[in-house]
Amino acid sequence: MLKKILLILLFSNIYSQFGEVNVTYEYNQRLIKDNKIYILEEFNQLIKNYFEISTFSSEYNDLNIPIKVHVIYEKIHFNGENDFNKISCQLFLTNQTDQYYFSKNIAFPYYDGKTIYHNPTFFDPLSSFFDYYAYLFIAGELDSYELFLGGPYYQKCLNICNIAIDSGYSSLWGILQDDIKEIKDNEELRIARYNFYYCLDMINSDEINIDSLKSKMTIFIDNIKSIYDKFGYDKNTLKFINAFHIEIADLLHLLNMKNELEFLVNFDNKNKTIYESYLK
Q: For 241-248, what is the mean pLDDT?
């Protein structure tokens, strides 16, 4: 039996889209007793196993996306001394670069012996929640490889939201639906991200074409300007810029794109001093 389990884990891991999965937690010490922490640790392990073992894409099995999940446990819901059926929490999920998301007011059905399985045709309040974020990370990763390549996975996120809302889970899933539409429909940011990653790949390759780099970074800045003109300070754009502000400044400095650096001085006040240092 042990040999069979190991083979299943090994086979699943080959086709998993996530590499290092780091799950950490904190908890409300007033509402959760120390002798119940084992429940939280078991839930953490369930999350870790789910991301590591599940196959979220049959097309892309070598993405190796590193993710971190931080859980803020608020309450374990008990029917009796050791009979629990739900966990209330908040979650922070990130690929540790430009994708990071925070969800609050979450209540997961969870009880002793509970496990979860990836089944994209069936809605489950627990597995579908993590499916949503798995698809979201995959979509963002694919968008950095090829323009709009992540589109089908953003659509998978939307499909989960639609099923959840139709199933009566409207409060949380309505928010997630709005979030994914905002990300998917912001094509200018998706174009900007792709062109930036294109430049990063070229810089790290043996074939550097300065003219091509300059063209791609011009498109990048033009799209950031267009987003600002349409939406002002878009949160997802600011998250991306903040994650890579040093790399962006390096590229613009390398390409002698002073006007673009000056634009970022005014646009990204949080990292203003970094851009100014490249203009000296």
A: 97
